[in-house]
Amino acid sequence: MSLLNAFTLTTFETDNKLSPTVHRRRKLVAKIDEQILYATDSSYQPTKQTWHKDSEGREQRVTVPKRVRRWWTVRSDGVVLLTVRYGSRALELAKGKNAIVVNSINELPTVLKRLSEAVDKGEFDKLLEEQASYGKRVNTPKT
């Protein structure tokens, strides 16, 4: 026990609990990074682990492709319209506007990287707060 007496001992407590704002930022940045991969690599296919029963009824964990919803669409004139989605809805970036105009598909990864940096800096915090409170308003029973 002479070794333990040589150390200063204390109670272990973590202080790395994330605030809801930081959690929302990280979640959106992860989704933007996924869209960057989707835009730059045509063979990108994310996967997830699920449980499936085989023919004999035993459950096995298998890797299956994960559905990724593309955030952009290419118009007939080559202009790309990019939405930023949080949850199942596109964020309203300005009053009545929920899409970013990108001149070509080649510029899309650059725009997505700039969006990711803006989210990290906290520029989307107000929009994310509104989006997070939207679900609470919809699901709250009326009195």
From TrEMBL:
Protein origin, superkingdom: Bacteria
Pfam families: DUF6641
InterPro entries linked: DUF6641
Name used for this protein in its record: SpoVT-AbrB domain-containing protein
Organism annotation: Thalassobacter stenotrophicus DSM 16310
